[in-house]
C-alpha cells in the first residue's frame, strides 16, 4: 500500500527559473525606475533564486518597459552561483545581452502562427531561421541557450493549439541546441489533462528532464498544471514573484504562477527548491508596494496576514 506522505515518483528537488523581472515587468503600464528593477533582482537572489531572467533585449518600440536592459545588467550586484539570463529575439539582441553581461540567453518561438506574427513580427519558420545566427554566436561565446515555445495549449488569436504543433517547434529548438525547452501556456488556459497530453507528445522526441513548464495563472490553474507536469517527470518550472506579469501580445493574460505559490506547493510536497519562502514573501510584498498594489499571490497574502 502506498504510504500517505510518501513522495512516490516526485523528484527530490526542482529548478525554479524566476522570470518576474522580465515576464513580470514587461507587462507593467507604469514606468519602473531602473534601481527598483535592480533591487528586485538582488532581493530574489537573497531569497535563494538561482536562475533569474533579468530582462530582455528586444525592440524598445515593442517593449518599452525593459528598454533599460543593459543598465539593469550592469548595475546588479552579482550573487555567487546565480545565473542572470536575458531573452533575445535576434542576433542584435544576443550581442547586446552578451555585452551587458548576461550569463545565459533565451530564444522564443511560438506554436501559433498568429501569435508569432503579433509577438515577433514573423512566421514560426522565419523565427527559427532568425535564431540560427544567435545559436552560432552563442556557441562561439560559450553561452548556453534556453528555448521557449509559446501558446502550448491555446492562442489568443487562434484558440486551441494541437500538441503536435508544440512538438514540431520544440523539436526544432532542440535540434538547434537549446539545452532546455520551456513550454509556455502564455494565456493560462491549460488544465492538467490537456497539459499532460501536450507534454506526452513533446516528450516523445525530447527527454522530459530537458523540458520546463511555464504556466500563466489567468484561470487559476497554474499550480494544478505544475503538479500535472511534475507527475510526468518535468522538474523545471518558471515562476514570477508576486505573480507579476503577462505578455502585451496576449491581451488579458495574467502573470506566471507566483513563485511563492510554487514554493509553498513544493514545500508541502517535500520537494526542495532552495528558496527561502519567508524572504521570498518579503520580496513579493516589497515589489507589490513599489507597484502600489497587493500581490496577486494567495500564498503571499495569507502569509502576510499571519505576520500581523
Ligand atoms: P521586426 O519589426 O521584424 O524587426 O521586429 P526589425 O529588425 O525591422 O526591427 C524593428 C525595430 O526594432 C527597429 O527599430 C530595430 O532597430 C529595432 P526602429 O527602426 O523601428 O526604431 N530592433 C531592436 N532594438 C533593440 N534590440 C533588438 C532589436 N531588434 C530590432 N534586439 C523583433 C522583430 C523580434 C525585434 C520585435 O518583434 C520584438 O522585439 N519583439 C519582442 C516582443 C516581446 O518581447 N514579447 C514579449 C516576450 S515573449 C513572452 O512573453 C512569452 C514567454 O514568456 C513565454 C510564454 O509566456 O509563453 C517567453
Ligand atoms: Mg510568459
Notes on the protein architecture:
The structure is a single chain. Helix content is 43%, strand content 15%. By secondary structure, the chain is of the alpha/beta class. It has a single domain (16-283), classed as TIM Barrel (Alpha-Beta Barrel), CATH 3.20.20. An eight-stranded parallel β-barrel has the order 1-2-3-4-5-8-9-10, surrounded by seven helices. Strands 6-7 form a two-stranded antiparallel sheet. Helix 6 packs parallel to helix 7 (163-176), helix 8 crosses helix 9 and helix 11 (277-290) packs across helix 12 (298-307). The chain is globular, with a radius of gyration of 18 Å. Bound molecules: 3-hydroxy-3-methylglutaryl-coenzyme A and magnesium ion (MG). The site of magnesium ion has 7 residues, from loops.
CATH class: Alpha Beta
> Can you tell me the CATH topology?
TIM Barrel
The sequence of SSEs as H and E is: EHHEHEHEHHEEEHEHEHEHHH
- Order of strands side by side in the largest beta sheet? 1-2-3-4-5-8-9-10
